Amino acid sequence: MQLKHLLTGAALILASVVCVPGFAVASKSSMVVLYAFSGAEDGLYPNAGIIMDPEGNIYGATWGGGNQNCYMGCGTVFKLSPTGTFTVLHSFNGTDGDKSEAPLIVDKYGVLYGTTNEGGAYSYGTVFKLTPDGSETVLHSFRHDGSDGILPTGGLIMDKHGNLYGTSYSGGPYDSGTVFKISPHGRETVLHGFAGNDGNHPAAGLISDTDGNLYGTTAYGGTYSGCDIGCGTVFKLAPDGTETVLHSFNGSDGAGPEAELLVDKQGNFYGTTTYGGIGSCYMECGIIFKLAPDLTETVLHSFPAKRRDGENPLGGLIENHKGDLFGTTYDGGPYYGGVVFKLEPDGSEHILQPLSRGSGINPVGRLLMDRLGNLYGTAQQGGAGGAGTIFKIQKN
Fold this sequence. Notes:
The protein is mainly β. Helix content is 2%, strand content 32%. Strands 1-28-27-26 form a four-stranded antiparallel sheet. Strands 2-3-4-5 form a four-stranded antiparallel sheet. Strand 4 (76-80) and strand 5 (86-91) form a beta hairpin. The longest helix has 9 residues, at 10-18. It is globular, with a radius of gyration of 19 Å.
């Protein structure tokens, strides 16, 4: 199962900032807060990951703030320049979207695409695009009956024809979530409706291979019942709509995956689960896992009950050429605000940066890495305004 991502549009830019040959983060690092959200017009709670263009501009979205038509604001799409100039590119108003929780993607023309968890014509979420001149178009509003899915929380991917693919957390024929496709003209097709045993509530976006197969995770469901409604799955969806459960988590090997997968050149999948593993946190503290091409799962790291090295990873992973994995945990660490960590191929975990209220706490989105080896991310809360931050960990 040799996998290669579709490097079109946004994937080209994402690849340029995630896969950086020759880089290894130093044990000592310095953290800089690039921007602290106020919770007002600029946005509140940057839950999603960020992306970067070749000029070094950072783009992302916030859960709240901006237009106050919605509870705690409807959210924003923003740009942060390399010189620190912050610009609100769009402020959602509810009818065109509300509460974005997913990273953006961008095509070769500079058009941004994303999802909102709520809002739209029926208040159950949207898929939108935003042109460089600031014009926003709602490509799809998820319907109130849930037949096409509701509450999308994961990001999108795009194929070479401009079709978008994503997941909805709920809705579909069994109200367990869907995998959907949006054509360039906004026509939506439900490719798969989860039924529970094959997965329940996909919270993350997808990845794809050159044959058109889609891969992702569900936060619940699967064949094990030890986590009330299942511990979650890793799945594959073929172009003909055939779904295969590649792995069902059982709790001790992970539970509750809520982040997109990472795949290496050998076809190994890597990911995080928010809960599970061996510890004494409620539902345990979370793990980092590897799923080999023969579908053998290995727990690479189980976050312990001491909380010092972090707990409850919500974001996905990135990798350098040496096989080191980088990610964040939502909680734990010396200041109980989460950490930025590195996991070496031998399983050694290192805290690169503990997070505190001054720098921002509770990171949710995936990190990115620039060509110089600096790491960037968002913290959901904290910072000078208490509403979250964009931070940079400089390579030493």
